C-alpha cells in the first residue's frame, strides 16, 4: 500500500537532481508502468517536470477515448511525448549552470503487439533528426531502451521468442566530440557490447555520468551492477549479475532427447507445482491437468560456476499445455 516517495532518493533522477540537474519524466500510461502497475506511484511529483496530469486528462477524456490510444487528438501520442522533450531540451540546452535529465517510457504502441513497432519508425526517426538538427545531441547522452522483448503470442512460444523476451535492446548515443575526447571510454563501451550486461549496469553508468571521471578499469565481477565505463569481466555470468534462472540466456539450450517417462515426470512435477499455487481455490476450479508436452530443452552450462567448481547436474526447460483452457506454461 505504500507509495514510492519514501524511496524516491534511490531512483536515478534523484542523483541528478542533487547534482543540480533539472529533471523530468513522462509516461503514456499510468496504469501499466513499473511505477504504477498494482502500485500507487507517488504522492508528490518525483521530478521537477511531471506530465501525469496531462496524460491522465487525455486518458479520461470521452472524446479522446473514442480515438486510438496511440493518438493525442490528431497527433500521434509518441510525437506529443517527443515534443515535450524537444521543448525541454531546447529551453535548457544552453544552460551550463543547470543541465537536465529526462526519463520517458512509452507502452501503448508496442505493448500488445511488437508488429506495431514499425508504425513508429518514422516518428522516432524524426525525433532523432530534430535532436541532431537543433544541436541538442551535441551535449546530450541519449539512451534508447526497452524493458523486455515480446512476452506472449505465437512468436513467444518458439525458442527464439524465449530468448527475445529476455534480451531487451539498449542503445547509447554519445556526442561526436565525446568519441574524440575520450577514445578509451568508447573502446570500453564497444568491448562491453559483447559482454553480459543488465539494466543495473545502466543505472551505475548514469551515476558515473553525474560525477564523470574519464578513467577506465576492470569492473568488479562480484558487483550486481557495473558501470559500462568499466570493462565488464569476460567471465561474468548470470549468477554474478543476480539474474534469475528463468531469464538467463548465457547457457545454450538444445532440444532434449529425454525419454517419454522423464518427460512425463517433468510435466507432472510442474502440474503439482501449479496446483500448489492455487490450492486455496481448488474447490472452485476445474481439475487442472497437463494436456501435452510441447517442448523439453536441456541447458548446456558453462564448465564452471561462480565458485569455479564443475557443474555436474542437468537443468531441463519444459514447455507444456494444460487443460482446461489450453494455457501454456514454462518451467
UniProtKB/TrEMBL annotation:
CDD domains: ALP_like. GO terms for cellular component: extracellular space. The lineage of its organism: Eukaryota, Metazoa, Spiralia, Lophotrochozoa, Mollusca. This is Sulfatase N-terminal domain-containing protein. The gene is ORF204125. It comes from Arion vulgaris. InterPro entries: Alkaline_phosphatase_core_sf, DUF229. SUPFAM superfamilies: Alkaline phosphatase-like.
